Amino acid sequence: MRTHKVALVGVAALALVATACSSGGSNSSSASDKKWDTAGSVSAGGGMKALIAAAKKEGTLNVIALPSNWANYGNIIKQFTAQYGIKVNSIQPDDSSAQEITWIQQKKGTSLDADVLDVGTAVAVQYKSLFAPYQVAEWNDIPANLKDPTGLYYGDYGGYMTVGYDSAKFGTITSLNQLLGPKFKNAIALNGNPTQANAALQGVMMASLAEGGNANNIAPGVDFFHKLKAAGNFNSVQATATTIKSGATPVVINWGYLNLASVVGQGASWKLFIPPNATLGAFYDQAINKDAPHAAAARLWEEFLYSQTAKGGQNLWLAGGATPIELTAMTSNGSIDKTLAAALPKASGTSVFLSDSQDTKAAAFLAANWAKAVS
Amino acid sequence: MAVAATQDAGTGPAGARRRPPAAWTGTVPFFAYAALFLLLPTGIVIWNAFRNSTGGFTFSNLDFTAPGVGSAFIGSFQLSLAASLGGAVLGASLAYAVATGNPDGLIRRLSVAASGVLAQFGGVTLAFAFLAAIGPIGLFLKASWYSSFPWGIAVIYLYFQIPLMVLVFLPAIDGLKTQWREASESLGGSTWQYWRYVGGPLLAPAFLGALLLLFANSLSAFATIVAWEDQISYVVPQLIGTSMISEVGLNNANQGDALAVGMIVMVVIVMVCYFYLQRRTSRWLR
């Protein structure tokens, strides 16, 4: 509490200076492996064998902001280490995309810098000058509208915005307006503050689509949360598996893959609901830090994540309830795990994906109106 | 004043040469510490408040009419006022009750020890304690005002404000001499008259000083309010948080620095009042 004095902001700034001064520290890639620092694809660097050898020599990979129960990342990291014998150093698992950027700016040139990033598209676009262009072997299987043409960032996995709830307690939900009813007193929570967390912003946008808004107009969603608050049903605690388990947030609006019964620790009565005509999807993006201390391991990690094999990243993300970016291509070439694919939440109607400008527009509207609407 | 005069007499022109050179060196760690962890960071924050993301000079960060900024400063002021007034009044009452009891008694020792601990209690643990006790699914009470601003969070802040008040105000009450009360009574003064003309004026500067300390304390609190209310930015520290961590495009660390400068200005105003009142306190007790 009292440690959070204003001056502490300054202390953080001081720490920044200190780390900047300590830059020029170790960089583990040796001269012969320098080519991986800039290699734009595995063939440009000398082939998969050379990549694996160089990555093993580096021995470590620094990842950041990957919670182990988020889209199966815990298993993905384990599988990567098992397959290549490379130690994965998981930095600040609960950071936001913006904090990932701050980290690579502050730790630049040190062995603590993150090699690879998993960021929301808005942040990826804003900071693409910090990334190294790289195209994985399966580059053509990534839909063109979900990647930067030069490979600075590229969609990795995603999902649809869902309402997760305990059907044993609330019955079956078939429309968003049911949530305004008296039995949902204090029940409904978002995954964070919509002016900060992308998952929360998209939750408000999903409500907007259900309430007659569109991707360019988040206002009906804000109105919906205003009504929810007026009815006493909006719970302003950030929903986590713990708050769900304790019963503090029995209804949660969040990405499908973060809202699965297995992820939030609930039984079979925990259901997901996607309102009709409000199928809002989004993909996160992968990017390689252009100052990555382990350039080869970073590129090997991307190859692993986009691999279509049974133990490759795409099927592992699917096992975490997320939609892998290569789903369409893998469905047609048969490499997808069909049981897992069938278990993805069903969406009806046309799927909506926000463009960067729509995202920015929504954020600006929320900055001006969100606090007023729900306070 | 008398003490100072004696020292002056002892350290005349001849005494100055005798002063051990090590005397001031003892303060070096303190001033180095203050410079490194207070002055330098403050300077960096102010410097960055006038920079844009590419390092150029700008005034645009200091736009306090941007959405949510004005209301956050008002919110910060309301909350700090409510939490400091409540804490000061209740804490002073408790301190008086403790001071008038047995000076070596168990109650006093317990109260002082508990205050020392609880004045530092805050953050997620404090917010969670209240959430579990009186929140929407509270064990003891499902308080409808729990999530209202500023009252709900002000009540939570009282949990560390009252003990802090006890700690800083108890010495002032202990300073009231029994003889003054006796003098007042032997001259025919009533209890009301004693407090109106003797006790009140003596304690007022110390009370106001403590009030300002409590104000600054709740102004700068961050972790508790974030754990209490994640989704609405009521106060400036929450907005600074948004400027640091927003992943929806509202992140702008320089604007966070500018907001911090705004808070520094608020704290400076509070501190100037505090020092002014401190001077009055010492004048009274001379």
List the SSEs and their pairings.
The complex is a heterodimer of chains A (375) and B (286).
Chain A: H1 6-21, H2 42-45, H3 48-58, E1 60-64, H4 73-84, E2 87-91, H5 97-106, E3 116-119, H6 121-126, E4 131-132, E5 154-166, H7 167-170, E6 188-190, H8 198-210, H9 219-230, H10 241-246, E7 251-255, H11 261-264, E8 270-273, E9 280-289, H12 295-305, H13 313-319, E10 323-324, H14 327-333, H15 338-342, E11 352-353, H16 356-374
Parallel strand pairs in A: 1-2, 6-7, 9-11
Antiparallel strand pairs in A: 3-9, 4-9, 5-7, 5-8, 5-9, 5-10
Helix pairs in contact in A: 3-12, 8-9, 9-16
Chain B: H1 2-10, H2 13-18, H3 22-25, H4 28-49, H5 69-100, H6 106-118, H7 123-134, H8 151-174, H9 178-186, H10 191-220, H11 223-228, H12 236-245, H13 253-285
Helix pairs in contact in B: 4-13, 5-8, 5-10, 5-12, 6-8, 8-10, 9-10, 10-13, 12-13
What's the average pLDDT of chain A? 88
- Annotation, overall tally of beta strands of chain A: 11
Main beta-sheet strand count, sense and barrel state of chain A: 9 strands, mixed
| Percent of residues in β-strands of chain B | under 5%
Largest pleated sheet of chain B:
none
* Share of helix of chain B, binned: over 70%
The helix-strand sequence of chain A is HHHEHEHEHEEHEHHHEHEEHHEHHEH
Poorly predicted runs of chain A are 1-31
From the alpha carbons, calculate the radius of gyration of chain B and give it in angstroms. 23 Å
SS-derived structural category of chain B: mainly alpha
Uncertain segments of chain B:
1-15
| Shape category of chain A | globular
Give the oligomer, counting copies of the same chain as homo and different chains as hetero.
heterodimer
Helix content of chain A: 25-40%
Give me the count of strands of chain B: 0
